[in-house]
Amino acid sequence: MKSNLGGDDSWLFMSVFYRQEKWHDLLVTINRVLLNLQKGGIAPAESLIYFSSHRGDNIRLALRYKFFEQNNYSFIEGAIKSFLVEHPSDKKTLILPISAFFKDFPANHIRYNLFDGHYILSDGLKDLQLLLSKILSVFFFDHPVDEEGIFTLLIYLQTSILENICATREERIELCIYIMSKMLQNKKEIPETTIEVTGTPNLGFPQTIIEECNTITLLKAFGKACKNFYLFNGQLSVSYLTILNIIQLHMLRKIEGAFFERLQYILSSILNEPANTLLPDYNSALH
């Protein structure tokens, strides 16, 4: 069940199949058991969360252990299994003909190693993943993981990135237009990016920020980390596209086309608001 990615660290790759409409309930259980394990000193050293629709709605957990033993993850597995038994989600209606080569896994089950270490980035970008994972778990703690919730979070995330990596309102407008043109060339999807990271960027937040349970605080830290990543490599548009690809990696195929629509909304907000103002509700929360 475990996978070694080098050194003494071991990663556990768990997929929990559960209907998307009730993911926020499942996230409450995942957060609770991780917090309890942290208090007991036996929590995984790092935990990453991904939303997936591959072979059925599922939340993926990548858990890193310094010293891997079965007891380390049995607490998490046991808590999630108990939740699935006590609060089973409805089975998804079968729609024929089936387009996928393999049928979906049944809901209310746990599977292992359906993804692997390719979903874990290196060279400091994993810090962005850790922050993003915490934002997902906290934001959707009390928000349904539906279209409205996903679109709202995308506005918050993209706003945080833009306000931190762009120095002026005009630069934000220019970057939005450039990125949207690139997406239009790619059928409104995020283009793949290749960025050469030499060394390990210091993204400028203490590891304790990962323990925060406040969405606004985490978004602030995420924005600052994005700015430091841009300052580290010096490529504005490539940095932005790289960060968007990281966000999509964690939200996978649940948000196809959503980035373009939200960026279009943000651009409209910038153009229609006074200088240095972007999405007033978000800014009033941050400041």
Describe this structure in words.
Helix content is 49%, strand content 10%. Strands 1, 2, 3, 4 and 5 form a five-stranded antiparallel β-sheet that branches. A hairpin with a 5-residue loop joins strand 1 and strand 2. It starts with a strand and ends with a helix. By secondary structure, the chain is α+β, with helices and mostly antiparallel strands.
Question: What multimeric state do the chains show?
Answer: single chain
Global mean pLDDT: 83
Strand content: 5-15%
Report the major sheet.
5 strands, antiparallel
Give the total of beta strands: 5
Portion of residues within helices: 40-55%
* Structural class based on helices, strands and sheet pairing: alpha+beta
- Low-pLDDT regions: 1-7, 276-287
Summary tags:
disordered C terminus; about 10% strand; about 290 residues; five-stranded antiparallel sheet; alpha+beta
Topology:
Elements: E1 2-4, E2 10-17, H1 23-39, E3 46-52, E4 58-65, H2 70-86, E5 109-112, H3 125-139, H4 147-165, H5 169-184, H6 215-233, H7 236-251, H8 258-272, H9 280-286
Antiparallel strand pairs: 1-2, 2-4, 2-5, 3-4
Helix pairs in contact: 1-2, 3-6, 3-7, 4-6, 4-7, 4-8, 5-8, 6-7
